[in-house]
Amino acid sequence: MLNTHIIGASGYTGAELAKMVHLHPHLKLAGLYVSANSLDANKPISELHGQLKGVVDLPLQPLCSPQDVAQAGDIVLLATAHEVSHDLAPIFLVRGCQVFDLSGAFRVQGDTFYTQYYGFEHQFPTWLEKAVYGLAEWNHDAIASAQLVAVPGCYPTASQLALKPLLESELLDTQQWPVINAVSGVSGAGRKASMTNSFCEVSLQAYGIFSHRHQPEIATHLGQQVIFTPHLGNFKRGILATITAKLVDGVTTEQVEAAMQAAYAADGDKHAVRLLGQQAAKLQSVVGTCFCDIGWQIQDRHIILTSAIDNLLKGASSQAMQCINIRNGFPQLTALV
Amino acid sequence: MLNTHIIGASGYTGAELAKMVHLHPHLKLAGLYVSANSLDANKPISELHGQLKGVVDLPLQPLCSPQDVAQAGDIVLLATAHEVSHDLAPIFLVRGCQVFDLSGAFRVQGDTFYTQYYGFEHQFPTWLEKAVYGLAEWNHDAIASAQLVAVPGCYPTASQLALKPLLESELLDTQQWPVINAVSGVSGAGRKASMTNSFCEVSLQAYGIFSHRHQPEIATHLGQQVIFTPHLGNFKRGILATITAKLVDGVTTEQVEAAMQAAYAADGDKHAVRLLGQQAAKLQSVVGTCFCDIGWQIQDRHIILTSAIDNLLKGASSQAMQCINIRNGFPQLTALV
Amino acid sequence: MLNTHIIGASGYTGAELAKMVHLHPHLKLAGLYVSANSLDANKPISELHGQLKGVVDLPLQPLCSPQDVAQAGDIVLLATAHEVSHDLAPIFLVRGCQVFDLSGAFRVQGDTFYTQYYGFEHQFPTWLEKAVYGLAEWNHDAIASAQLVAVPGCYPTASQLALKPLLESELLDTQQWPVINAVSGVSGAGRKASMTNSFCEVSLQAYGIFSHRHQPEIATHLGQQVIFTPHLGNFKRGILATITAKLVDGVTTEQVEAAMQAAYAADGDKHAVRLLGQQAAKLQSVVGTCFCDIGWQIQDRHIILTSAIDNLLKGASSQAMQCINIRNGFPQLTALV
Amino acid sequence: MLNTHIIGASGYTGAELAKMVHLHPHLKLAGLYVSANSLDANKPISELHGQLKGVVDLPLQPLCSPQDVAQAGDIVLLATAHEVSHDLAPIFLVRGCQVFDLSGAFRVQGDTFYTQYYGFEHQFPTWLEKAVYGLAEWNHDAIASAQLVAVPGCYPTASQLALKPLLESELLDTQQWPVINAVSGVSGAGRKASMTNSFCEVSLQAYGIFSHRHQPEIATHLGQQVIFTPHLGNFKRGILATITAKLVDGVTTEQVEAAMQAAYAADGDKHAVRLLGQQAAKLQSVVGTCFCDIGWQIQDRHIILTSAIDNLLKGASSQAMQCINIRNGFPQLTALV
């Protein structure tokens, strides 16, 4: 049993992680932590997340000494704000913990990226370089030997899983940038009081047009520029990405199908992608599951892909768990289905 | 044209009032105000409430001198917090304005009521005594000559409109307290950021059990104790009250029907109640309207009443407008249908 | 007062029309009709649409003799199925009625269009040719003298109002087809029982990919090919279209702004478009209103437009009413704001 | 491994059962069935319930010969319509299968009950008499030796679990009937196309006032008359029951607490009830779980209880699974948490 600590356990992602670790046959849920001055400190996690009552009732401990936590831990999950992850990760890493960071703090290399998109200067270029991007279906081998895994963002997961097979097979006309329109449930904004997330204010709308930090994350890891427009939807969980792209002249439906099959062969243990063929992905089928559903249709030289995930699961916690499983030699979907 | 000012115009009720006053053929929307230190000060109201864009674009002025506003106004609508209404109303009243207060500050007389239920001591017992409770269908004549109208709360409106005809006709067995279960949309909590109102946290649940301030408001104005249990529902607008009560032995369906008809005779101009008979009230029929729908069924000595309103309209702003219309001799539903 | 008949009045659009005609100072709601064998025949419309109770309680008459209705009517609104409109419209037209058809039966000319997209062969090429496309902001003069107005579809209204100013000003690089992603509320599918519209089955998903009949409607009336992907959203009313397009090299933000202002000058009586500038359109601001909100942002040579309407109002009934107003010389937004 | 068949597997409850049986370490999902003439026959269950794709993809077989199914089965779950369960159960029972019926066909004894409330005459009085009511927390021993278990209805489960401890401890003043107001998600009406369940028609409303068949089910098994008013809510899953009752004179909070604790001692394996004390139950905490959350508050002689379940789980499928576990000696919450 590997001792597993969750830092930032009061949020929606933290609650999902706590349940998964609890259910995992080879992990021991060693501790849940919140920042030392959090109002939620010392409350049982089930007081914040009532669905956990009777299942996981551990207290949310104030994180006073990350060093002590590091000593007692094999695995550390960081479900913390970007700057917090940035500051904490090295403390755990130098003490030998495996670190799975769900924030954006170690996802993208590049001199100006963090200053421009996250508003802070990155202090740990060496760790940033060593970090493995945890897109489970595509970085399996690197994850298997990583000490620091940067779990991808929710939109980037849905977007890349759909586009990568086509790019890898060189089926896309890369001159015309793919257009990614995606709608996320409100939980994507985290567990907090704000006018934007207030029940009466939420209604479908685009935000972060041309400026969302997930655009460069997607473009960097795809190696392809994209136009990415996120939207807030009036539902709690889930992301649906609808992607319009141009195919290389002469590409056939069969070639697309073959590229998808090659990427996500029907081997249940290897991944969490379900191919829908001509059917369109829908939120309801993926919410509450670890899966990414992908459908596509072609007309002339255009392809429209639909890709759906649960933003808190495949877009965050269950992908982190896939990475833990890969890293430690467990079947990839352990504790997930 | 009567100059009409709305104080506390940034909230959901304020926005509804602004639109109604704008549409009213005999009222002039003279000014919109927020507290002097509000972050929304000087913004056009349509920046906060996008549906008003192009319809009402007046700025939300900081309320620096209520005295000046009073001089320039015939009618003042207070859509302010209870304590704010308590403090402001006399300033407008002594300068001769008609004041329609949508808060709870002048609704209930009694030595300990405000200390116990609102957490402040009432400083204006004379005005409190002069205030007329603005339940439009029941206090018509008093409203017609009032200077200060305390517009009823949302739950009390839905509850009393259903129960009053039966109590007035002495059809209820008053030994057994009526049980009022009511569910309100989230807008009832006002326009503000809070965890409770956060989109992902809202789900059907009771609150304020045995302790909600609307219980004594209902009991006082009915002259009958009741058990009142409010609930938060996962919708933006509307209140549905389901009321279970005991009838006096021998009361017939015909007597109940007659009491309802007597109270709300089919005279469209006189009131905003629609009788549904055996049909149950449903939210969808009243949301966006000024109406209270009431249905009822009887079995043996029990009666179950359902009563539905839009909490922001009949439960607040449209009832205030009914009171303005009554007070100034306009047809009662002017600007409302 | 013009006698106005609504055919197909049992649906959501019919109910909206009934209320508007009722409120209109120059129209008389002469009759509501459903098909002769409808189960709703002879019910008051307010039995189906509870919000109308006490406002419009006219019965839904079985349409036995359209000829008789035509004799008694000045204006006929067809809120009927496509084939029904196709069959009925000429009966009213030859008897001199003004006909405003909300179906797709007279929207697009072309030999194979109706066979391919609507599954029937058009029998009235002359009327089809005479029909004026009722995009109120763009076809004002033709509507003003039309006898038959084909009120545009909901998606086409949202899409064209955003794109037309750019195309007319030749700011778009038309080589790269604009990508229109739009999400509609469930009411777009009409008032009927179906698994697809069942409460528990609805969740965000694309449909009609590369095959929706609104694609050729948009392309025809824009004179520009587009990629159009409609989605079903988990809400009752509203459409949000997010449109990604490429600008001609060198086009500036100022030019786009100027094109928008030129198209929709700030003259409240002339149209129902509200320009948001850099702000993104959101559903909540338009639902329940007659307005189309349009926002846009530019980066390099890409523009992203967001366009929001109430699908039942600007996407159907209120646009029909704009056309009636234009046709009969009333201020364009009469009965609408 | 016990061979387990699910009859009526196309519905929401059937899908939940399929997943549970699939996850159960001692059950083998032997077959899924729909009626022989169902349009869904031979489709994989995951075509109807997309969340099951890759998890349970078995076909929905047409049930041509229940006799053959009985031969090959140890356990049969009937997620069928009441009449269908009534007809099928004996076929499986006489062949020695354990039958867990989720319909109402075997829940209540009494000469006129089925004629009055279900519209058919019961043909199997002997089996009706032998049937054990599967309220897992209260009928443990009888369930452990039953061949036919009638799994309780959703409303009766939420209602009885809250009231039974008080009645058993004789703390309630039984002269005054408890008032049960309950709101159910739309999935309670099953997976089918209907106007009532249509997305645009759903809004909070009471139904079945004084006439719902769950009223006598509750009253019979409680041994106490109750007033029960069900409501349809605008959400997919969950039931919240708010119950108002009168206590015997002098009953203390401590006595109520003791009665609850005695009924649901903190022994995780024995039951699926979570006691919340003074806190009110909320839907969000139970949806997706097998738990019933119960809270209560007392004032003078009144008690208000709130009780929340997932209608498809504790109100149907997970309670059936509790019964299977009890009957076969497995830990009671196997496959449930």
Structure class of chain A: alpha/beta
Q: Spell out the helices and strands of chain A N to C.
A: EHEHEHEHEHHEHEHEEHEEHEHEEH
CATH homolog superfamily of the largest domain in chain A: Dihydrodipicolinate Reductase, domain 2
Count of the separate structural domains of chain A: 2
Helix tally of chain A equals 12
Radius of gyration of chain A: 19 Å
The number of distinct β-strands of chain A equals 14
CATH topology type of the largest domain in chain A:
Dihydrodipicolinate Reductase, domain 2
Q: What is the CA-CA span between the terminal residues of chain A?
A: 20 Å
Largest interface: A-C, 35 and 35 residues
Strand content of chain A: 15-25%
Strand order of the largest sheet of chain A: 3-2-1-4-5-7-6
Which structural traits does this protein have?
homotetramer; 337 residues; alpha/beta; Rossmann fold; Dihydrodipicolinate Reductase, domain 2; 7-stranded parallel β-sheet; 12 helices
Plain-language structure description:
Chains A, B, C, D: Residues 3-146 form the Semialdehyde dehydrogenase NAD-binding domain. Chains A, B, C, D: Pfam families: Semialdhyde_dh, Semialdhyde_dhC_1. Chains A, B, C, D: Pathway: Amino-acid biosynthesis; L-arginine biosynthesis; N(2)-acetyl-L-ornithine from L-glutamate: step 3/4. 4 copies of one chain form a homotetramer. Chain A has 337 residues and is α/β, with parallel strands linked by helices. The first copy, chain A, folds into 2 domains: 2-130, NAD(P)-binding Rossmann-like Domain (Rossmann fold); 154-311, Dihydrodipicolinate Reductase, domain 2 (2-Layer Sandwich). Helix content of chain A is 31%, strand content 22%. Chain A has 12 helices and 14 strands. A 7-stranded parallel sheet of chain A has the order 3-2-1-4-5-7-6, with helices on both faces. In chain A, strand 4, helix 4 and strand 5 form a beta-alpha-beta unit. In chain A, helix 1 runs parallel beside helix 12 (313-328) and helix 8 (154-168) packs parallel to helix 9 (214-222). The two termini of chain A are 20 Å apart. The mean pLDDT of chain A is 96. The A-B interface holds A 12, 186-187, 191-195, 197-202, 234, 236 and B 12, 186-187, 191-195, 197-202, 234, 236.
